[in-house]
Design brief:
single chain, 255 residues, alpha/beta, Rossmann fold, seven-stranded mixed sheet, 7 strands, 18% strand, disordered N terminus, binds S-adenosylmethionine
C-alpha cells in the first residue's frame, strides 16, 4: 500500500517539532492550537497590550509600511486573531473594505468583528479558501509557529498573491545571545504567564503564554524560513529585525 505523508507528519518543513508537554502526537497539534485560541480570544488583547514588548499597533503599522503596504491595495491578513494587524492594514490600505481577515478560530474571528467591520473568513494558512492571484499584499502576525508546514503555507501565499504582490510575516525570534535568551525566557515563561493569571478571566490564557514561549524556543531558525519563502517562488526575500527578536520576513511574487 502506498501511503503519502500528511503535512502534519512530515518533519521536513514544520516550524517546530512536536511539543509533548501540550499534545501527544503531531496530528493533535491543530486541534490543541484551535481550542487554545478559542478559549483565550476574549483575553488576547488585554495580555497583548500589557506584555507585548512594544509589538503593539505601532510596530505592526511600521512593519506593514516598510513592507510596501500602500493605499488602494487588496490585503489578506492570515491568522487575523482579534484583528491587530488587520486594523493597521485597513488604515494603510484605505479602509476595512480593502482587507479580508482569515483565522481558524471562531472565537478570534468573533472578537475581530467586534472591533472592525471587515470581511472575516474561517480557514487555515496551509489551505486558503480564496482564488489565485487575488491580493496585492498578504500579512501574517505572530502565527507562523502555528502552521503545520512552511512549504505548503508559502505555496498558498504565492498562489493567492497577484504578480508583484508582497508578503509580510511578523514573528518573534529566539535571540542568539545566551544572556538575551535567558532574560527573554524569564520574562516570557515567568513574568508573562504570572501577570496573565492575575489580569485575565481564563486559566487557559496563562497556558497560551507558556505555549507562546515554548514555540518560539523550539522554532526553526530564520534562515530556514527565508529558504522556504524562496523555495515557494518569492523574490527579494528579506528579514528585518528589531532588538534582535522582532522579525519581519518579506518577499515579492515576481511579475
Ligand atoms: C498570536 S495570535 C496573532 C493574532 C494577530 N495576527 C496579531 O498580530 O495579534 C495567532 C493566531 O493564529 C491563528 N492560527 C493558528 N493556527 C493557524 C493556521 N494554521 N492558519 C492560520 N491561522 C492560524 C490563531 O487562531 C490565532 O488567532
Amino acid at each position: 500500500m502506498t501511503q503519502s505523508l500528511r503535512s502534519e507528519d512530515r518533519p521536513g518543513s514544520r516550524p517546530h517539532p512536536t511539543l509533548p508537554g501540550y499534545y501527544g502526537r503531531a496530528e493533535q497539534r491543530r486541534g490543541f492550537v484551535r481550542d487554545l485560541f478559542n478559549h483565550t480570544a476574549p483575553d488576547y488583547e488585554r495580555v497583548e497590550r500589557l506584555l507585548a514588548l512594544g509589538s503593539g499597533p505601532w510596530y505592526r503599522r511600521r512593519a506593514l509600511t516598510r513592507a510596501g503596504l500602500v493605499s488602494g491595495m487588496q490585503v489578506l491578513d492570515v491568522a487575523m486573531g482579534t484583528g491587530l494587524v488587520a486594523r493597521e492594514a485597513a488604515r494603510l490600505a484605505g479602509g476595512p473594505g480593502q482587507v479580508i481577515g482569515l483565522d481558524p478560530s471562531i472565537g478570534m474571528l468573533a472578537e475581530a468583528r467586534r472591533a472592525l467591520a471587515l470581511q472575516a473568513i474561517l480557514g487555515r494558512a496551509e489551505q486558503l479558501p480564496v482564488r489565485a492571484d487575488a491580493f496585492d499584499f498578504l500579512s501574517m502576525g505572530y502565527a507562523l509557529r502555528h502552521v503545520a508546514d512552511l512549504d505548503s503555507t508559502f505555496r498558498e501565499y504565492f498562489r493567492v498573491l497577484k504578480p508583484g504582490g508582497r508578503v509580510c510575516l511578523l514573528e518573534i525570534t529566539r535571540p542568539r545571545g545566551r544572556l538575551a535568551l535567558l532574560l527573554l525566557r524569564l520574562y516570557m515563561k515567568g513574568v508573562v504567564p504570572t501577570v496573565a493569571r492575575l489580569v485575565t478571566r481564563h486559566r487557559e490564557t496563562a497556558r497560551l503564554m507558556e505555549y507562546y514561549w515554548d514555540t518560539i524556543a523550539a522554532c526553526v531558525p530564520p534562515e530556514t524560513i527565508l529558504a522556504a519563502l524562496a523555495r515557494a517562488g518569492f523574490a527579494d526575500v528579506q528579514r528585518h529585525t528589531e532588538l534582535g527578536i522582532f522579525s519581519a520576513y518579506t518577499g515579492v511574487k515576481p511579475l
